[in-house]
Amino acid sequence: MSKPVQKVVLAYSGGLDTSIILKWLQEHYQCEVVAFCADLGQGEELEPARQKAMNLGVREIYIDDLKEEFVRDFVFPMYRANALYEGVYHLGTSIARPLIAKRQIEIATQCGAEAVSHGATGKGNDQVRFELAYYALRPGIQVIAPWREWDLTSREKLLAYADANGIPVARDKRGDVPYSMDRNLLHLSFEGKVLEDPWKEPEEEMFVLSVSPERAPDKPTYVEISFEKGDPVAIDGERLSPANLLARLNALGGANGIGRVDLVENRYVGMKSRGVYETPGGTILGVAHRAMESLTLDREAAHLKDELGPRYASLVYNGYWFSPERLMLQSLVDASQTYVTGVVRLKLYKGNVIVTGRKSEQSLFDPVVATFEDDHGAYDQADASGFIKLNALRMRIAALVRQGKP
Amino acid sequence: MSKPVQKVVLAYSGGLDTSIILKWLQEHYQCEVVAFCADLGQGEELEPARQKAMNLGVREIYIDDLKEEFVRDFVFPMYRANALYEGVYHLGTSIARPLIAKRQIEIATQCGAEAVSHGATGKGNDQVRFELAYYALRPGIQVIAPWREWDLTSREKLLAYADANGIPVARDKRGDVPYSMDRNLLHLSFEGKVLEDPWKEPEEEMFVLSVSPERAPDKPTYVEISFEKGDPVAIDGERLSPANLLARLNALGGANGIGRVDLVENRYVGMKSRGVYETPGGTILGVAHRAMESLTLDREAAHLKDELGPRYASLVYNGYWFSPERLMLQSLVDASQTYVTGVVRLKLYKGNVIVTGRKSEQSLFDPVVATFEDDHGAYDQADASGFIKLNALRMRIAALVRQGKP
Amino acid sequence: MSKPVQKVVLAYSGGLDTSIILKWLQEHYQCEVVAFCADLGQGEELEPARQKAMNLGVREIYIDDLKEEFVRDFVFPMYRANALYEGVYHLGTSIARPLIAKRQIEIATQCGAEAVSHGATGKGNDQVRFELAYYALRPGIQVIAPWREWDLTSREKLLAYADANGIPVARDKRGDVPYSMDRNLLHLSFEGKVLEDPWKEPEEEMFVLSVSPERAPDKPTYVEISFEKGDPVAIDGERLSPANLLARLNALGGANGIGRVDLVENRYVGMKSRGVYETPGGTILGVAHRAMESLTLDREAAHLKDELGPRYASLVYNGYWFSPERLMLQSLVDASQTYVTGVVRLKLYKGNVIVTGRKSEQSLFDPVVATFEDDHGAYDQADASGFIKLNALRMRIAALVRQGKP
Amino acid sequence: MSKPVQKVVLAYSGGLDTSIILKWLQEHYQCEVVAFCADLGQGEELEPARQKAMNLGVREIYIDDLKEEFVRDFVFPMYRANALYEGVYHLGTSIARPLIAKRQIEIATQCGAEAVSHGATGKGNDQVRFELAYYALRPGIQVIAPWREWDLTSREKLLAYADANGIPVARDKRGDVPYSMDRNLLHLSFEGKVLEDPWKEPEEEMFVLSVSPERAPDKPTYVEISFEKGDPVAIDGERLSPANLLARLNALGGANGIGRVDLVENRYVGMKSRGVYETPGGTILGVAHRAMESLTLDREAAHLKDELGPRYASLVYNGYWFSPERLMLQSLVDASQTYVTGVVRLKLYKGNVIVTGRKSEQSLFDPVVATFEDDHGAYDQADASGFIKLNALRMRIAALVRQGKP
Fold this sequence. Notes:
4 copies of one chain form a homotetramer.
Chain A: E1 7-11, H1 16-29, E2 32-39, H2 47-55, E3 61-65, H3 67-80, H4 97-111, E4 115-117, H5 126-137, E5 142-144, H6 146-149, H7 155-164, E6 180-183, E7 188-191, E8 221-228, E9 231-235, E10 238-239, H8 242-255, E11 260-266, E12 272-278, H9 280-296, H10 299-318, H11 324-335, E13 342-349, E14 352-359, H12 367-370, H13 382-402
Parallel strand pairs in A: 1-2, 1-4, 2-3, 4-5
Antiparallel strand pairs in A: 6-7, 7-12, 8-9, 8-13, 9-10, 11-12, 13-14
Helix pairs in contact in A: 3-8, 4-5, 8-9, 10-11
């Protein structure tokens, strides 16, 4: 056990694990537990969580709707960077943790708690993300990570503890323990159970946010997304708030079988794990943003972003949202987005997100220069000769020397 | 006109443009033209090209089947690097040019020609790719790029010249001039015509290598690809030569509506252009290779590759295949592939390439460590506490100083 | 000859080359030449240039003191990035060109000129730097680069032209033609003559801004430089304007034999060349800035800067000051400098710049944590165990698999 | 205490700390301790260490001369990469640790030990370097890090323990405790004591390997270093083995006041610390290698190395010598060194290492192309025009659009 604690703010979901933790904290630390539920669009009523917490004797309960802040200040900045972890993962869990941690620290300061706690295990990335954020924002905070402390080291012990303390246990439709899941407005993730064998295909019944491509409509859906300075602002001409816009994209993507990813990924704590994700709206947004940039962003600006994108993604994945290096990269990214404004048209069809058009008043596509037809002198083809000759010069000199005829 | 020339080796396709060039070289330079046709799997008989060249008075004609060399020594090394230009383009044209140039230089040396020529225009990337390769391999070579020299500056003038010289002109099905296309075993590209408006969707009739997702079968196709040291070697257990393997993947991809990309891209010569690509087999291969790596490649090795991938792709796109920096990056990439060996199972369905399994004797996925269940001590969760604390330390110290409580 | 021109603004130094160019422009283009002399601290009176230009019939002459703008808006931002080209060159010429070009374009717009001209040769980097800046700032500008147009292709022809037009020719002390030199408040560069043999040591008499280390004082000079947000603001406690501060550092460095660099460098146009540079003040500033950062900058911020520094330097060297990618990198760099505030103490001695102390209220050096003595719990050494174990985990798993004992 | 142990191999220096550790391991673990002394050129007789170990009851003692392996397989590969940590530190300690660890693991396997131990503290980088290497080479090894386990948490307790166990305690000349030092053929490092205040200048008496610049000879020393494929092979024409060559450079550098660095650096474990280093020979070697590359290495190869150099340096600093990512970078670096062959002439003078000449049969410096004089057509200045125009094109188009005149 760590140092004694008077009051701790727990990131509480109302689910089994954090209910057990809540009880365990009360018992083990003999401290007052403040419950904090963040509404990030996980698609559940949070009022039942309030009741559960009250039943467990909690007196201070915070239930905060953070959906707009989440999308505006976390999801959209990340999409400006075209961040994908290991090429495909949209970072749906990773990007939510810093916001929960930030609000949790605010509450701790407000209600005079000297500690915070979370329900992430000692094997995963989330503990890192929560705690790096806690420490960056309030360096003297005390952190309690029950999974790394307690002796409830198997599912059996956990369930026994729940039973003994009157904490209800959910089962899935078949009565099995559920997958390890995390859901918010950006995504839903699955880990564990059959997924622990990377050779096995996930079962169709597992998915929640999307139909399979096979069950998606036989007719494509066309959609137009408008961007301003790198952020989406409207769908089919209708302006929407960030959270509403992402929700709309989720509905569109989910209905068309879009956004599933099945990945063996590398955790920051050093092991590989297998995750399956549904990111219907985010997948659409990612394709659309790249298409908007393809028309409006300078070549070297785009390439610089592409080279730094994997690093930005790793920082988010590893929990360094509040680090100086993430902020530096964000400054670089944001400096590129001034003219990323216009409209992208997409065709959504059975898992595919197909770009079918992009237009912008800031378009750098110059049809007169680009045409295969006569351009009336807009581009002097003879310039290419000097361009090539000088770019080749270093290789020519080297070849002359290496071939022994200097 | 450049310096006088006795003999020039022309990269000849048998098509309209290079036929005009062949004639123009004979007339303009009063030189002997050697015709070289490379078979890179463009899917056409090349014997008719021989006849056309003979009709134009050519005495030395080289028709070389380079398909195996193309896939083994150019395509596969590039896929080891997971190279995609601007996030999506599979570099199908870019990767073919260095091989054509290399063989062309060999022929020039063999047959005593002091010059080489190609049919690429002065606005595009291909002129750069051809010529950088020429100069790198034979620094004293003379290069003739007719598009940058002649006065046939409009399609009308070209067609008039063809008519005047008895060169037949192909039309597409509707009698229109065709798209500007390039095809080989890796891909088919389209530019020009309606595509010059990036807001317009391509017409379905344009496509050649693939059916549309809509017209693809309603039943998915499962396929297993085996890898050895980063290269694919077998499909569904059947070992195939590189070119045969890629051809098989093309058939699978094309039948399932896979591999179309519609892109506004940034050319090396400084302008944006719009291209549409079909890369059915390459798209499957790219997904499969990443999946194989996800299981067998170390995390930091994978991330280093991800950070350098865009640069590798730009080098290939810009024509620097034979540059020292591409060779250095290839060394780095190849050093990572020793254990990228195993099998990936994919589901192909209406445009989707879905990873459904991966296995390997070199798998770094350790189910005992990764499990959410009891791991019997394989991983000590308490270790995570120190890991996080030390990773947070620099941010904590900074926060203490910045918040004024050092 | 390019298109006809009515009025051209020439970057004019008063020296031989630009005097010949001035005359040649008048003769060759039959146009009015506006002379623009930028005072960047080259250490010469510019009024004689005014007289020379008037003698050559120029009616509009601009002589602008740009020293403060040069140091504040060009030199200092570059030093924030710790930019050194190829490890050692302080970019003294490169960083001046964009400012000259910017002012030249302003003057052209102001006085109604449709063209600009400069005295850089067709082999060097300066032509690129001038012209990329011209085009970025006024894309329709006409550029006249006489060195690439005229037939004065040897020094003899140039001197004959000068004689024929009454343009005075300077000789060095020994009556030789001088080195090719460029001087401003940041540096003085030398190229040509004996330096064209990279095995030969430069002659001591060549140097201007600095004594040799051998002739520098036998006693060291101590100096303290104060920084605010990454920029130097005071020397030995005395606040100085940017230009005055750099001039003071030049005096200190020059007197102590500091800042000579002898380099074979890679030009952007594809060849290697040998340059010798004197950058007395800049060398001191570079060392001081790094030392200030060593105390106040986060580790990952510093490392990110180090990785991007060579690219930033190449952009400046190659003339891309006004490019979006340089601006993006500047945003990243500037975002790191908020707390780079404090004092660095240096010892200057016979060519050496030795850091002997650094202090800051923003210091991240925490003596309590860092001490080898008892730290009373500020740092828990046991944390290191978990830190190492998890960082090693991926390599351990790999070793187990590779060694065949999974 | 960790798990029980029968036999442990200790990296033993014969000094106070590892003598205490030796005793403590025997007492605390009741195990047999095997002593391993690596001779990496620390400049001390190691036979006394044998005697000390015997006096402490050790029966198996390994004293290995690893100097040639150290320089050939560790130091030289690192210098091929021009690796400097945080711009200035030559990584003298970092590069030695992997070799010690490698040999220690070999001995453990040979003599049937199940554990290894070292004398690095829980605050520093060396524990990480040792242990990452141990785990990478023998993933099941048990590691005992006494500093993280025992209760000897202050210098007083340590000295008391030494006294109680008859272990002699060294004092410096003044009877003070010495600096924390690490010495090998590449360098000598100092930490602790007065250095813990970064504002204080080190005392002159502290230094061992070098005289101060002030006390160095008034006459410069010229030296020529020959390279083959990136590695130094001869000094002033005399071929020397790697270790002998580095020793010779140390003598030259030390006599001329070369190679001192005073740095506030960022440790991998999260804190800043202040270190002072003497690297006389390595400093000369680093300058010489860069100069050799400046003449023989392609521009883009050199720039790619410069961009990746900081990352390579961090990997070595952080202890990842045996990681796949270091090996990948080494492959990239080594692929660039094929032609880095020739001679560099240096002038050593009172702390300065001045390049005064470089020559090579593989020189890419082409005086005909580079000359300011007439080059008789080797380079066509008109080529530069097209080169600039196409490089400017993307910025021109952007300026036209942004300025509203497309």
